[in-house]
User: Fold this.
Amino acid sequence: MAVAQARRAPSERVDTTARHAGRRRRSGVLFHAIMAPISVLWIAPMVFVIFVAVRSFDDISARGLGALPTSVTVEGFVTAFTDGQIGQALLNSALITVPAVVIALLLASMAAFGLSRYEIPYRRVVLLAMLAGNLLPPQVLIIPVAKMSENIGTYDTLVGVVAIHVGFGLGFYTFVLHGFMRAIPREITEAAIVDGAGPMQVYARVIMPLSRPAIAAIAALATTWIFNDLLWALTVLRTQTKFPATAALLNLQGGYVSQWNVVAAGAITAAIPTAIVFFAFQRHFVSGLLVGSTK
Amino acid sequence: MAVPVVVEAVWVFWPAVNSLWLSLTKWNGAGPPQFVGFRNYTSMASDPVFRQALVNNVIWLVGFGGLSVIGGLALAVALNRPRRLVGLYRSAIYLPMVFSLAVTGLFWRVLYQPDGVVDSVVGGVGLGAFAKQWLADPDTALWAVLVAAVWRQVGYLMVLYLAGLKGCDPTLDDAAAIDGASAWQRFRYVTMPQLRGVNTVVFAVTVIDSLRTFDIVWTMTGGGPYHSTELLSTYMFEQGFTFLNLGYGSALAVVIFLLALGFIITYLVRAARQEVI
Assistant:
């Protein structure tokens, strides 16, 4: 029996590997035949929006929105920047995003440092409560936040938008950073303390440099979250010149009904900064998405 | 070190408690809120727009959640193993992720316009008769918005699942293949059980995201036409900020919160379990 099996085995093996190779080649063709059209389908909407953006208003009204461009013009972009004030809106977005990310990460890293290195009573409860705060639907906060901002005088100011972004994101950033900092061996910080370092020095000279990868990932994630936000901006801001890009686009759409080249150009312009951040920090961006969602 | 906790308490927990209280009042923003008990909640029962928004939210949850989870998982499985062009395909699919929902909404608004690109494509494949005002027709508007949202979300879920698949043990899959399991059987009985952790997170994230969805609807339709794309979040925003029915708006927000609560707890329990302190 065993001998017979052994004798039969080699020929069978040749047989199956040949069949496998054939199947693999066929499945390879099938794979590309399915994936290539899907990828094209995913890219197509962006390409068509670019087509609309580079056509002139006269061309669109003459030949319809769906036609392919025959010439390229920057008319839409010029109108979006001059009358639509997209430039100002992008500046506002930056003035909100940069301070909000920096302050939120500074506070979150301090909180995470304290919670991960010191015996703070109920720290587990504190940590989960902070995370829970970030999971709340923003809808349950917007009315009181608008009223509070009015009462303390930050309503309709960029400071007000920064404040709510910091407050709302803090819990999540702290939770993720805590997970990372906890994994840093205690021996390292203990050695620093033996060498005479105070808590602030341990934080600034030991923990923060070691947490760089986690901070970079969260910074990439937070930047896109805050830059892309619309709801908080609509909640806190009223004056149109203070609107960030997302909210300004809504206005652009209202003001340039049927001038679709302007709307498309504005939308593309507003998308460029996040696209740059994405390509420059692609690695961090992907790990940012994964932060806190898998093990 | 207490500063961060205080900041979050001021900007998150205090407003949340306030919403609970406001939901029991009638208030237009001026003067003190007037306590009315549970009247806001009882009037929801007879509010047809609320019912429409609730139904739409269920459609949204099933359609947006279901399609993007299935799409994301299928693409992750297809693009898991290194092959030629896999990197290119992956980038194409998660590129829309970098756009804000507001930008995504505007992109698709441009595409959906009458005689726009979508109509041209529909006409190009011989279905010209189906060309219509996608966003102005109450029958199609919600689905039109849903397509745009799924287009963006699939990439995110694909990335989550790719990470989950990376954590799977490839030798188990090979062993099952040698034992003669088909591709589907290997996926169903070998890979899926190993993805249980990711699935829990994806499920909770999807439900919470569905209930939070606001930006894309607001930019594409504003909840119209005739409330056909109204979700609880957009209706809440309208009641609170357009009509200044702050009490009723708060009550709607509390309903959104209660619907999300179970999934928030699921997420927290999982987080707590990993956080072995």
